[in-house]
Design goal:
By secondary structure, this protein is α+β, with helices and mostly antiparallel strands. The protein has three helices and five strands. Strands 1, 2, 3, 4 and 5 form a five-stranded mixed sheet that branches. The protein starts with a strand and ends in an 8-residue tail after the last strand.
Length: 88
């Protein structure tokens, strides 16, 4: 499986962040919920979603990659929420 995160990050309608990836050459929109962005660093003051995403991009994309490897994306979309941020 070939996964590439190509971006760019953009603000989603719900206040979360969308980030484009390709999985074996097919586009998948990774959607990071507003709650996931808040919960990635609970001690930080949450302001701009895109700025917060950029500070924690590596951890957030890692969570997305784990779900993509499991084949959880549907119809070219993948939702990453707070539950996906648990460290296994």
């Amino acid at each position: 499986m070939n996964i590439m995160f190509i971006g760019p990050a953009s603000l989603a309608i719900d206040g979360g962040v969308a980030y484009l990836a390709t999985v074996d050459g097919k586009n998948v929109e990774c959607h990071f919920s507003y709650e996931a962005l808040e919960d990635i660093d609970p001690d930080a003051v949450f302001g701009d979603a895109l700025e917060h995403f950029s500070h924690h991009q590596l951890m957030l994309l890692s969570a997305a990659e784990k779900k993509l490897i499991k084949g959880i994306a549907h119809d070219g979309k993948l939702l990453i929420n707070s539950n996906d941020l648990r460290i296994d």
